[in-house]
Write a structure and sequence with these properties.
By secondary structure, the chain is mostly beta strands. The chain is 12% helix and 43% strand. The model has no long low-confidence stretch (mean pLDDT 89).
Amino acid sequence: MITKGVAKYVYLDSTEKFNGEDTGKYTLTVGLAPAEVKVLEDMGVKVRTVTDKDTGKEIRIRKFSTQYKLDDNMIQTVSGESIGTDFGSGSDVQVLWKAGNEHPTHGVATYLTAIKVADEHEPGYKGANEEISEFLTA
């Protein structure tokens, strides 16, 4: 399955942290257009509504995850350049994923397989490693 959207939260260089705890998963949360939301919901995938920190507007999002770090060649630009995790929030993305088992609360699981990023993309510096992120953005 392929889903298109805008990268919102990118945790692909290290595993995501939630409330100070390591989730053990590499994740990409994608902002979705209404047409993509409908396709996912029709498949039993739950899509959340959140307030975008940058715009203050409500957006629809879905998180895609994997237990394994994606090889750099599994994250490429549309023109085929391997970029690894060197893209950030705001980048247009296409996510290749596999459906997992359905969970009563979270719906059908969405397992991340590969990512295509727009040739013109945001630089990647918003990793889950707070020390590195702080250093690179200071």
